């Protein structure tokens, strides 16, 4: 079975016909100069790519602020507030 770019499924259009790709990868593989294609990412794919960004995982400055506040005694831990938050999230999961 051959899949071509005239498929009735819009997600498959251009996949087998070689119309999608990265210009930089074409240039490095010796493809014809001047050929340019684009890939459009869905909002969900852009969101996942942003989540994959390792720089956004840990806010070093914020971690240091919390460490300093704990060390100086400025930050007070309220166990009952933590317990209330955990119970609320469990209730939401059980709904």
Automatic annotation (TrEMBL):
Disordered, as annotated region: 1-36
Ranges of residues in domain Anti-sigma-28 factor FlgM C-terminal: 39-87
Protein name listed in UniProt: Negative regulator of flagellin synthesis
Designated gene of the protein: flgM
Polar residues bias: start-end ranges: 1-11
NCBIfam families: FlgM_jcvi
Family stated for the protein in its record: Belongs to the FlgM family.
Transmembrane segments: none
Any single Pfam family the record assigns to this protein: FlgM
InterPro entries named in the record: Anti-sigma-28_factor_FlgM_sf, FlgM, FlgM_C
Organism encoding this protein: Castellaniella hirudinis
SUPFAM superfamilies: Anti-sigma factor FlgM (SSF101498)
């Amino acid at each position: 079975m051959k899949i071509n770019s005239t498929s009735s499924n819009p997600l498959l259009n251009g996949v087998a016909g070689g119309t999608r790709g990265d210009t930089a990868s074409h240039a490095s593989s010796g493809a014809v100069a001047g050929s340019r294609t684009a890939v459009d990412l869905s909002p969900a794919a852009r969101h996942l790519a942003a989540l994959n960004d390792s720089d956004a995982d840990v806010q070093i400055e914020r971690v240091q602020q919390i460490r300093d506040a704990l060390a100086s005694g400025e930050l007070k831990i309220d166990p009952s507030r933590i317990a209330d938050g955990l119970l609320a999230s469990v209730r939401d999961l059980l709904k």
